[in-house]
Amino acid sequence: MNVIRSFLPRWSILLIDVFFCFCSLTLAYLLRFNFNIPVSERASFIYVFPFVLICRGLSFYITGTYRNIIRYMGSRDVVQMVLILSLVSVFFAISNVVFYFTPEKRFIVPYSIIIIECFSSAFILIAIRMIYKGIYSEATSSSKNRQNIIIYGANDTGLITKRAADQDADANYEVIAFLDENRKNWGKRLEGVTIYPPARLKKLLEDNNVVNLILSTPDISYERKNKMIDICLAHNAKVLSVPSINHWINGEFSFRQIRNVHIEDLLGRDPIVLDKDKIEAQLKDKTILITGAAGSIGSEIVRQIIPYKPAKLVLVDQSESAIYELQLEISEMSPSVPCKVYLADICNQKRMEAIFGDTHPQIVFHAAAYKHVPVMEENPVEAVNVNVTGTRILANLSVKYGVGTFVMVSTDKAINPTGVMGASKRIAEIYVQALSAKEKTRFITTRFGNVLGSNGSVIPRFKQQIEKGGPVTITHPEITRFFMTIPESCQLVLEAGAIGNGGEVFVFDMGQSVKVLDLARKMIQLSGLVLDKDIKIIYTGLRPGEKLYEELLHTSEDTLPTHHPLIMITKVREYDLGTISTYIDELVELTASKDDMKIVSKMKQIVPEYISNNSVFEELDKKISAQKT
C-alpha cells in the first residue's frame, strides 16, 4: 500500500474520477436505450461526452475532492461528493434550457441521461472510495495483531469513538462489541458491530482477548461504572474514558484524547441537584470574600460562585504563586467579574480589618485553615493561631462590618477529635455558633470528610508513589475514610450557605466509608501495574492524632433533615458566648508560653470529648481520667 501511495500523485485521482464519470455516462446511455443506442444519439457523443466530462473534471478540481485522503473518508466526504455531482447535474439541466432556444432547438444532454448519470456517478465514486478504504485498512493491519476493544455507549459519541479507533492505524484497534443500557438497541448492529447489554461484559472478556473497555458516555451511574471496572480489572483489561465534548480539540475528537479512568471517577456520586434559584438569590450582585481562596476547596468555591454573577470577588490567601495562578484563571474564565486579590494572613488583625474596611463584603466563605493532622499534632501553637484565632478575627470583623452570611468550612475530624487539628476546628465551630446566637450575621458551619484530590488527600500522595514505582505507604490495613469530590463538597457548601438561618452545623452525607487499602489496590490496578509484582504496599503505623475510623456525628448528637437529601443539621451542644470567649482568651495567652502540654490541656478542657490517639498528649487524658476517679 505504501508503494501505491508513493506512485499515485493527487492529480491521478482526478483523472481516475473523470474516467469513472465517463463510465457512468456510458452506462447511463446504455440503460436509457436498453443497451441499443440509436445512431442519431451516437452522433451527439462528440459534444455530449466532452461537455459532461470537462464540467465534472472542473468541479472536482475547483472543490478539491481529489485532495481528500481516501483512507480517512467519512460522512462529510460523501455529502460533499453527492452535493458536487448534484450541482453540476443541475447545471446540465439549465444548459439544456439555454440550448433549447438555439436554432437547433434540442437538449444538449437528455434529462433522463442527466439523472441516471448523476446517480451512477455518485454510486461508483463513493463505492470505489469505500472499497479502497477497506482494502487499505485490511492491508495495513495484516502485519500486526489486532487489539480488541469494547465501547460502552451505542450513541453518537460511541460511533465517533469507533471511527477514531478505526482510523488509528498505529494502534490497530478492532471494536468487537458495543454495550448499551437501552434495551431497544440490544442485538442490533452499529456499523457492523453488535450491541450487547452491559451484563454481557464478563462473557465478552472471557471469550475474547480484550485490551480496553472505553467509556464513551458520561451518563453512567457510579455503581455501574465501579462494577464494570472491577470486572475489567479482574480480566486484565484497561478502562479508558472519552473526555467530554468541551475538551475535544477544536471540536474534533481523536483516539489519542482518550484518557485512563481515574480513581476520582469511581469515588464520586451521581450529580447533586442544587436549588440554584436560592443560591443565585444569595450570591448574585453580592461582594463575596473567600479566605484560603487559592487552596483546593477555596478555589473551587470561587469557580462555582462565578456563574452566579457576584458583584465582586475578594480573594484572600497567603500563597503568592497559588493566588496569582487563580487570578489568571479567573481573568480567562470570566473577565467580567471584578476580582480583588489580597496576599494576607488571616491571623493579622490589622491587615484583615483593612481588607474588610476596603471591600465591605456581604458574604464570607472561610476556607483558610491548617488541616494536616500529624503536622498540627507537633505544632499546637500554629493550630490555635490559625484555626482558632484566625477564625475569631474573621468572625468578629464580619459582625463589625455587617456581613450578612459567614460560612465556615470545617471537618469531620472535629467530631470526637483525637488530634490537635480536629480539636482546634471544633473550638472554632463553638465560637462562631455562640456568636451567631448574639449577632445579626448568619454564622453557618459545614462539615465534611476527606476531599478527593485536595491538598493533603491520600489520592495525590498515592499517585506520586505509584509514578515513582512505589512502595505505596498506608498507615494501617484497616483504616477507613469517607471521601467526597472537590466539586460536590463545594456545591453543598454553597447550598448550606443559602438555606442556613444561622447557628447551624451542617453535615454532608459522605456515602459509604472506603477502606484505604482497597483504594490503593485499585489505583495500582488502574495504573496498569500488578500488586506485589510491579509495586508493593507497606504499612507505616497510625500517625499522631490519626483515627482508624472516622465518624460524621458526635455520639450524643442527633441530626435534622433539610430539603436536600445530602445535607443534615447537627444538633450540637450550645455554648455561652462569654464563656467560650474567656476560654479562647486563656488558650491564646498560653500560646505565648510555647508549652504544648498546657495548650493541649486547655483545649481538652474546652472540648471534653477530645481524647488523644497515638500521641504524646495521651498522658493528659490519663491525668484527667485519674482526677475523675
Features:
629 residues, Rossmann fold, 3 domains, 23 helices, 22 strands, disordered N terminus, alpha/beta, single chain, seven-stranded mixed beta sheet
Outline the structure in words.
- This protein has 629 residues and is α/β, with parallel strands linked by helices.
- The chain has 3 domains: 139 residues, no CATH class; 115 residues, Rossmann fold; 249 residues, NAD(P)-binding Rossmann-like Domain (Rossmann fold, 3-Layer(aba) Sandwich).
- The chain is 48% helix and 14% strand.
- The chain has 23 helices and 22 strands.
- The N terminus is likely disordered.
* Contiguous helical run count: 23
- As laid out across the biggest beta sheet, the strand order is 10-9-8-11-12-13-18-22-21
* CATH homology superfamily name of the largest domain: NAD(P)-binding Rossmann-like Domain
Number of strands: 22
How far the N terminus sits from the C terminus, by CA atoms, comes to 91 Å
Largest sheet: 9 strands, mixed
Could you tell me the CATH topology label of the largest domain.
Rossmann fold
Helix content: 40-55%
The SS-based structural class is alpha/beta
Calculate Rg over CA atoms. 35 Å
Which segments are poorly predicted (pLDDT under 50) over 5 or more consecutive residues?
Answer: 1-7
Oligomeric grouping of the chains: single chain
Q: Using the coordinates above, name the CATH class of the largest domain.
A: Alpha Beta
Task: Indicate the mean pLDDT.
Answer: 83
